[in-house]
Design goal:
Radius of gyration: 20 Å
Strand content: 15-25%
Number of domains: 1
Bound molecules: S-adenosylmethionine
Structural class: alpha/beta
Oligomer: single chain
Order of helices and strands: HHHEEHEEEEHEHEHEEHEEEHEHEEE
Shape: globular
Length: about 325
């Protein structure tokens, strides 16, 4: 199988491998990581991968005069950095990566209004964390990478996102192409693919919107623990239900039309899981019901969204009759 136009990804990985190789606590990862990435990115036939790589390779050569990762809209470049013709060409290429779910972004004056106001989640999370400045951060299940940029905006030293979706990897690179030096990387791994860093891993590990997708939530939490350093901080964001320490919802089939939802625990049960795994200083810092202003269809995500997943006669219930999505943020220390 010959794969064209893979240089952009190869260059990005090479930069990361060089950085990892210079770090005594992370260098061991290089024994497995390059082969794993090769296998996960290119190992299997994939109907769209070549189209996506060709799209990335066709991105116009523009230089961003600046960027801003500190505001709700992650912005790279200014409208004045390119001609109207170049912007139209870029917009068309970015449309190859519709649906855009996590954002919003602005690239050379093009507004990408995503399905989710991921900036709202960030605003709920960030006030409660140890400052991210100078830290090495892992974001597990990073989607398009929106929060990776916000972590950089907080001054993180290095940010690595992992997500098994090659589609999201390509969305990320359509941004990274215009900020090639930024110390932010996206690896197409699942949390199950991470090594045990023997308590010398990342300073902060995020897992937002992933736990309920795992059949085995405790294994997921153990993988997050294995990625942290001693004294490091876990930021866990997930769906929850009301109830005591004995309460969790397991949907019979779909939840809010999603197929792959397994456990939705109460906050009290989540805290118990974290205590059992050896976390300390466990704090539920936010619980919010998701609104149809936060998750909705847009020009950049034209499929159904939250309104269609709720009971039309009772917005406190999903279409299947379960409690409507409510999300908690839990912070804990290793
Ligand atoms: C609901 S999205 C959350 C995206 C982002 N973290 C956020 O909070 O907006 C869940 C993401 O987790 C990813 N995911 C699913 N299973 C995973 C696993 N085992 N390891 C890592 N990521 C996973 C999915 O591909 C998807 O992008």
């Amino acid at each position: 199988m010959s794969i064209e136009n893979r240089e952009l990804l190869d260059q990005q990985y090479a930069t990361l491998y060089e950085a990892l190789g210079q770090d005594e606590d992370f260098a061991f990862w290089l024994q497995s990581l390059p082969q794993q990435i090769e296998e996960l990115t290119f190992g299997k036939p994939h109907g769209k991968r070549q189209l996506w790589l060709d799209t990335l390779a066709a991105l116009p050569a523009l230089t961003a005069s600046d960027h801003d990762f500190t505001q709700g809209k992650v912005r790279i470049g200014q409208a004045g950095d390119c001609t109207d013709e170049q912007r139209a060409e870029l917009k068309q290429l970015l449309e190859t990566f519709i649906p855009w779910r996590k954002g919003p972004f602005e690239l050379f004056g093009i507004d990408i209004d995503t399905e989710w106001r991921s900036d709202w989640k960030w605003e709920r999370v960030i006030p409660h964390l140890s400052p991210l400045a100078g830290r090495r951060i892992l974001d597990v299940g990073c989607g398009s990478g929106y929060h990776l940029w916000r972590m950089l905006g907080e001054g993180a030293a290095q940010v690595i996102g992992i997500d098994p979706s090659l589609f999201f990897l390509m969305q990320f690179h359509s941004m990274k192409h215009y900020a090639p030096e930024a110390p932010v990387h996206f690896l197409p791994l699942r949390s199950e693919d991470l090594p045990d860093f023997s308590r010398k891993g990342f300073d902060t590990v995020f897992s937002m919107g992933v736990l309920y997708h795992r059949r085995s939530p405790l294994d997921h939490l153990q993988e997050l623990k294995n990625s942290l350093r001693d004294g490091g901080e876990l930021v866990l964001e997930t769906l929850v239900v009301d109830g005591d320490v004995h309460t969790a919802l397991m949907p019979e089939d779909r939840y809010g039309k999603m197929r792959n939802v397994w456990f939705i625990p109460s906050v009290a049960m989540l805290e118990l899981w974290l205590r059992r795994l050896g976390f300390r200083d466990i704090r539920a810092v936010d619980v919010t019901v998701t609104s149809t202003d936060e998750q909705r269809s847009t020009e950049w995500m034209r499929f159904e969204s939250l309104t269609n997943f709720l009971d039309p006669d009772d917005s406190t219930r999903t279409i299947e009759g379960y409690p409507a999505p409510k999300r908690a943020v839990i912070v804990a220390t290793l």
